[in-house]
Amino acid sequence: MSAYPDYVARFYDVVYAQVRDAADKDYYVRKLASCRGRSLEVGVGTGRIFLEALKRGADVYGLDSSAEMIAVLRGKLDAEDHHRVMQSDLAQMSFGKRFDLVVAPFRVFSHIIDADDQIRALNVVHDHLNPGGVFLFDLFVPNLKLLLEGQAPVTDFDGEYAPGLRLKRTVSASSDLISQVTSVTMAFDWDEGGRRLNAEWSFPFRFYFRYEIEHLVARSKLKLEAIYGDYAESPLNSTSKEFLVHCIR
Ligand SMILES: C[S@@+](CC[C@H](N)C(=O)[O-])C[C@H]1O[C@@H](n2cnc3c(N)ncnc32)[C@H](O)[C@@H]1O
Fold it and tell me: What is the pLDDT at residue 3?
């Protein structure tokens, strides 16, 4: 279970609008908005994708283990839609309804470190799908040079989080090839009440290889349809940066 600190939840939208939206948002919003029945985003976060899908008429629900991320999402949601959002660990999910589409956008499964927990998570998604229902999730294709050498601190966001208030985020990482865990550190500093504040968050992030994903899904109750290499659903090849995993019940 991942704990997103309050400052990470608070700055999530402004950072990822810049560093992630262009890659995946349109893809997932289109999938949710074109689903004829009920849909669910697991690891919904602050609603980066969910809110746009809801606005476009999707009958979409959301689940996240982080109270901080859910609080930001609820703050942006009309009261009549609060029932759509639940705080729970994915492995313990119990919605009492089934869905035609479940999505886990932007590395949700990298937060699940242990293989038994990964299987539990896949199986609980299976149990929440209608027969023929689809589960879509993504993971990053490991970059072997970065895994070996680590990521030296790099600033990936430096801008205003509100008019006249500056935020800077710097990310670094090192990986262990045996546990397949990358330790990621995100350092934030920002203007607040005339002062400069800072905080640092470190967390484990699991990386996966192609055949590991295939074997993992094969051990679960889901059926693997395809692993694409990008959000145009192109076949995987040696230049792919994404594993976009398409499963069905
Ligand atoms: C990188 S964020 C992605 C949020 C959102 N899907 C998006 O695309 O912006 C990953 C989210 O997964 C949630 N998460 C991680 N592990 C989880 C678990 N075991 N059960 C439920 N949510 C989880 C985190 O709290 C976080 O909000």
Answer: 82
CATH topology for 144-206 is N-terminal domain of TfIIb (2.20.25)
Which residue in this structure is represented by tokens 């896949």? 122
Give the C-alpha separation, 181 to 53, whole Å.
32
Choose which residue among 65, 85, 138 to substitute to test ligand 1 binding: the one with the highest number of ligand atoms within 8 A of its C-beta: 65
* Interval 85-144: pLDDT, tens: 999 999 999 999 999 999 999 999 999 999 999 999 999 999 999 999 999 999 999 999
- Give the fold, CATH level 3, of 6-141+209-248: Rossmann fold (3.40.50)
Tokens of 112: 């699940």
Region 206-220: mean pLDDT is: 98
* The token pair that represents 58 in the structure block: 């999707």
Domain ranges of the chain: 6-141+209-248, 144-206
Ligand 1 atom with the shortest distance to the CA of 9: 27
Listed residue (182, 183, 187, 177) closest to 153, CA to CA: 187
Q: How far is the CA of 195 from the centre of ligand 1 (A)?
A: 31
